[in-house]
Design the sequence.
């Protein structure tokens, strides 16, 4: 047996199993979901194998008036999800950026430890972290106790089940996602450039806007994208902290699968999320290419 | 001035990250059974309840979910996490080795492709798997959870092991071959020990993520297979109870120990 042939067989041995597994159990399901989004929902929760574009019509504006009515509420829930995800990105950026800057100026030993501390909560159970915020935000929670104790409010404020609670919860959960790419690009900042800018008479703000911000832009974009994607499709955070009042597209999809039992429609909603994610990734690729030139 | 402001901000950042978690830990020792938010003394009662021991506060008995259910959920989670992490580690390592050590046209393609499961919104993957299992007529079982979680955990292991392979000096492998070792010997004696920290790291990472996965498991678990996160999710939906604090604290301890082990090996590797 020749060397090339042996190498080829080794490669096949390494790649074959995992490739087959992922083809069948990862790409297979996604493909079936796409197919489902074009099928007709059965009367009693199943699916009829008849082509239908009405699942998309119900969301996007055309529909058969008999039972598959177009309802703008779906688009408005999607719009809210986009908005809340975007606000989550902005909040976590504002929180992480100065902190990453601070940590990047530490001595190496301290720096490693600080990054370890930022990453650690990522390994703490998601449900535990959200539960903590329920304890803080609920009417009898710590925040209200504190506010009333200081005398700022006489009655508890309803923080839970608001947009604020959902954004706060998602920010808290996704902070490491934003922090790490940001830190990566802030750490690479050339201090000499900043000093040069200051020496040449630029104000702090000018230096930040013209030197620091452009240099850290890849980290900002990277962090924004990997925070935005899981935030957009999230249904755990809005369920726990948003209740029935702050529905996101994830909650809608969950309902279609577990209570309404309209799988084709749920699939179409999921395709909406997928499309948004794909558009975002294409934009990012374009931006990255643009940055190289 | 600016520097002092930055330091203050940085410290507040860590307070924001850790205060909520610490609150859960502190209040898991709160003796107040009437209002769990008001501190009224120190107790181990919530822990005693979890372990099925008698407690002094009989009133709180109304809160107790069956500890049997809790134990069953922990067992299910451990079974799933052990199987999933083992399977994902084998597949992810094989893929990483293939992409890093063999020259073939699809290597770059594989690298991009294996990113897809990690950026796929988990709810999309969850429902896609549910539709798939139902369509091919497969029962929702422990097996479906293991398969479902592996589809994205393979990617995490792949990334972790690839990172290790990238910083691993190929000249050592070449030297081994030059000195007359067979490829199998080189692999066993040089490559494998060299990337072992990466494999261990990938295994621990996939174990932790599997133990914590709620969304994907939620859709494909079926009715009989409650994992720990799903069990707690159910408890939360039925109402906020003090014993959740204690369960949460124990989970915290468990994941911190595993994360500490993983990070210890990673820091040793870097030195």
Sequence:
């Amino acid at each position: 047996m020749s060397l090339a042939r042996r190498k080829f067989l080794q490669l096949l041995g390494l790649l074959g199993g995992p490739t087959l597994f992922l083809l069948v159990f990862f790409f297979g399901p996604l493909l079936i979901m796409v197919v489902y989004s074009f099928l007709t929902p059965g009367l009693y929760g199943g699916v009829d194998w008849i082509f239908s574009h009405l699942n998309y019509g119900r969301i996007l504006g055309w529909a058969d008036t008999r039972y598959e009515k177009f309802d703008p509420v779906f688009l408005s829930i999607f719009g809210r999800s986009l908005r809340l995800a975007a606000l989550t990105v902005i909040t976590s950026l504002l929180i992480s950026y100065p902190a990453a800057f601070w940590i990047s100026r530490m001595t190496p030993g301290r720096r490693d430890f600080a990054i370890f501390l930022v990453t650690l909560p990522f390994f703490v159970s998601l449900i535990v972290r959200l539960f903590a915020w329920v304890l803080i935000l609920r009417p009898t929670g710590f925040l209200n106790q504190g506010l009333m104790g200081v005398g700022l409010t006489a009655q508890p404020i309803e923080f839970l089940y608001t947009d604020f609670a959902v954004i706060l919860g998602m920010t808290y959960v996704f902070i490491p996602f934003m922090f790490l790419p940001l830190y990566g690009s802030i750490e690479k900042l050339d201090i000499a450039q900043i000093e040069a800018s200051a020496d040449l008479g630029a104000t702090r703000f000018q230096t930040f806007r013209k030197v620091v911000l452009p240099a850290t832009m890849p980290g900002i974009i990277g962090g924004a994208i990997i925070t935005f994607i899981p935030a957009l499709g999230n249904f755990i955070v809005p369920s726990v902290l948003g209740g029935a009042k702050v529905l996101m597209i994830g909650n809608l999809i969950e309902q279609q699968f577990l209570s309404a039992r309209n799988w084709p429609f749920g699939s179409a909603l999921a395709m909406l999320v997928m499309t948004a994610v794909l558009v975002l990734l294409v934009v990012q690729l374009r931006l990255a290419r643009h940055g190289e030139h | 001035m600016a520097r002092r402001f930055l330091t203050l901000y940085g410290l507040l950042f860590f307070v924001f990250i850790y205060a909520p978690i610490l609150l859960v830990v502190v209040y898991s020792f709160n003796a107040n059974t009437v209002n769990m938010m008001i501190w009224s003394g120190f107790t181990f009662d919530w822990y005693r309840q979890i372990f099925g021991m008698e407690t002094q506060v009989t009133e709180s008995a109304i809160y107790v979910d069956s500890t049997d259910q809790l134990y069953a959920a922990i067992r299910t989670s451990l079974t799933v996490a052990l199987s999933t992490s083992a399977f994902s580690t084998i597949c992810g390592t094989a893929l990483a080795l293939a992409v890093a050590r063999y020259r073939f046209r699809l290597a770059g393609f594989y690298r991009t492709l294996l990113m897809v499961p990690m950026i796929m919104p988990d709810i999309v993957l969850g429902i896609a798997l549910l539709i798939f299992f139902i369509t091919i007529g497969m029962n929702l079982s422990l097996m479906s959870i293991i398969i479902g979680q592996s589809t994205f955990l393979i990617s995490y292991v792949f990334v972790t092991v690839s990172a290790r392979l990238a910083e691993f000096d190929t000249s050592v492998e070449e030297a081994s071959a030059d000195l007359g070792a067979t490829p199998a010997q080189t692999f066993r004696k040089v490559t494998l020990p060299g990337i072992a920290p990466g494999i261990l790291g990938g295994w621990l990472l996939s174990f932790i993520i599997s133990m914590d996965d709620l969304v994907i498991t939620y859709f494909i678990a079926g009715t009989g297979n409650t994992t720990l996160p799903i069990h707690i999710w159910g408890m939360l939906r039925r109402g906020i109870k003090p014993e959740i604090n204690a369960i949460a604290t124990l989970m915290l301890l468990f994941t911190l120990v595993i994360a500490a082990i993983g990070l210890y090996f990673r820091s040793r590797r870097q030195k």
